[in-house]
Amino acid sequence: MDFELDETQRLIRDTARKFARERVAPGARARDRDEKFPADLYREMAALGLLGVTVPVELGGSGAGTVSYSLAMMEVAKVCASTSVGMAVTNMCGELIYRFGTDAQRQTFVPRLTSGQAVAGAFALSEPHCGSDAAALRTTAVERGDRWVLNGTKQWITSGAYAGVIVVWARTAPAANKGISCFIVEGGSKGLHVGRHEDKMGLRASNTVALTFEDCEVPVDNLLGKEGDGFKLAMIALDGGRIGIGSQACGVARAALEAAIAYAKERTAFGHPIGDFQALRFFLANMATEISAAELMTWRAAAKKEAGVPFSREASMAKVFCSEMSNRVCDKAVQIHGGYGYIDEFPVERYLRDARVQTIYEGTSEVQRVVIARELFKGARP
Ligand code: COS
Question: Which of 40, 125, 315, 346 is deepest in the core (most CB within 10 A)?
Fold first, then answer.
């Protein structure tokens, strides 16, 4: 077991850290307030290889592996969780097309994602009536000549109004999960309508919309993977995605811890900096310990994925632990700030709002526990 980063991992982390501090952090508060989508930042990120950390260099990525990806996500999330979620989804879409696409699909769509030409990628699985029960989706795709014709509505689509490449799941046969297939749809396609922009509690600079497909035609060649394999592709993508959200949660929690330490050193009460009081020191020590545990869990899942061994359970464990941890840590950071934690002059209220969705999206905490428990009942090492 090696706890040292290799040269590539260090390089990616340092690149992401510098970019996050210099380019992403300065506007984070204003973007959150104004709900301003960071399209320009994604273009800059693309130039640094951060929109395709795990896809090969020939396709415009960094070919640096999942641990590097996790490190990069942590750095960006630490300064702006909103920016990091679009980064996560774009990486996830690029990797999915790289892994399961035909040569033509790889050559056409992956470079669009990694170069920033597509602005961002979008992952369209959930629908208004189904999120956790992904196999219940109702969007249909019918083959007509050399086209697939899509009809239906997708919900909670990150970067949906901006994404140039959208991976869409649709029903091609009645059978629950075996009747689902996966398609690559270009943003702006005829028959693709962008719905209401959601006014969210957190991640306010991230764009979240519904997408409606009305006789939206895509070439037959845009079927990703085999017909009927879509559900498995979604599960595989989400396993990796959960490492991304675990990383995001760690990044946000670290930001909250650092803000809390700074405030505890500066604020005085009863003639002392409040950081002198043991109650607060214990809060901070617990926060730091939990973050450290969460990071290790995330990197373990990432290392397993990179090694090509099963990692679903580890990804779900990391996701549930990190997301719940980040909510506890951000909540404590607000508590340490007292009244100042509740106003937008200090960043901890944003961190808490941003953390809240982490136990919900890319599979709720309850879904993660379903995945973990199933593995236990299959006889996996507890
Ligand atoms: N990797 C590869 N294949 C997988 C898989 C994984 N991680 N998980 C499931 N599968 C396969 C199964 O092996 C099964 O294949 P067979 O039918 O050939 O045996 C098939 O997919 C169906 O699996 P399962 O029966 O477990 O499906 P369920 O409908 O019971 O779904 C959960 C299980 C709840 C775990 C799944 O629907 C899920 O993860 N839901 C959450 C979706 C989500 O995260 N939504 C958020 C969207 S993004 S914001």
Answer: 315
276 CB contacts (<8 Å, ≥6 apart)? none
Q: What is the CA radius of gyration of the chain?
A: 21
Q: What is the pLDDT of residues 24-53, one digit of tens each?
A: 999 999 999 999 999 999 999 999 999 999
pTM of the model: 0.98
Residue located via tokens 């800059």:
44
User: CB of 117 closer than 6 A to ligand 1?
Assistant: no
Domains and CATH numbers, the chain: 7-120 (1.10.540.10), 122-228 (2.40.110.10), 231-377 (1.20.140.10)
Atom of ligand 1 nearest to the CA of 370: 35
**Environment class of residue 144 by beta-carbon count within 10 Å: exposed (0-12), middle (13-18) or buried (19+)?**
exposed
CB count in 10 Å sphere of residue 302:
29
Amino acid identity, position 247: S
pLDDT in tens, 1-18: 889 999 999 999 999 999
Residue nearest to atom 10 of ligand 1 (CA): 232
Conformational region of residue 147, where left means phi above 0, alpha means psi within -120 to 50, and beta covers everything else:
beta
Encoding tokens for residue 51?
A: 């929109």
